[in-house]
Amino acid sequence: MTTNDIDFDRLLRANLERVFNERDLDKRQTAIAELFVEEPVMYEPTKIVRGRLEISRVAGELLKQFGPTFRFVPDGVAVGHHGLARLAWHAGPEQGPIAVTGADVAEVEGGKIARLWVLLNPPQ
Predict the structure, then answer these.
(1) Which neighbouring-strand residues pair with 87?
(2) pLDDT band at residue 5, thresholds of 50, 70 and 90?
(3) What is the pLDDT of residues 86-112, one digit of tens each?
(4) Nearest-angstrom CA–CA distance, 75 and 13
(5) Domain segments of the chain: what residues?
(6) Cα separation of 36 and 31, whole Å?
(7) Which of 80, 36, 66, 34 is nearest to 54 (CA)?
(8) Per-residue pLDDT tens for 9-22?
(9) Fold adopted by 3-120
(10) In 1-124, which residue ranges form alpha helices assigned H by DSSP?
């Protein structure tokens, strides 16, 4: 698979919807297996998360912490080339207000996310 074959928008949107918006553990872990390499690394502002199980755990805890209507919503289209992609997003309760904005930057290998940086915008 070449970098030209990768649908970066589909991949990063699937990560938001099927991993970070998914409250069902089994569905989330299935999605992570499809979307991430065997040993992914996620870089958050305050920690480094290693492995599929830990990424699933972090996503689940985040959703639990912020309540049943908290969602991540993509802003625009993901852009990428040469194995690097970015998708801006905002998050908060479904009926608002927006609690946080940021972007995911992913290094993609073989069509899957190998490394994911979660970049948070400063509060406004």
Answers:
(1) 104
(2) confident
(3) 999 999 999 889 999 999 999 999 999
(4) 10
(5) 3-120
(6) 8
(7) 36
(8) 999 999 999 999 99
(9) Nuclear Transport Factor 2; Chain: A, (3.10.450)
(10) 8-14, 25-35, 52-66
The C-alpha atoms of residue 63 and residue 24 are separated, in whole angstroms, by 11
Judged against a pLDDT cut of 90, whether residue 4 lies above it is answered with no
Q: What angle do CA 63, 26, 55 make, to 5 degrees?
A: 55
Three-state DSSP class for 16? helix
- Apex 118 CA angle, 93 and 9, nearest 5: 80
What is the spatial distance between Cα 55 and Cα 48, in angstroms, rounded to a whole number? Answer: 10
Tokens read off for 35: 């979307």
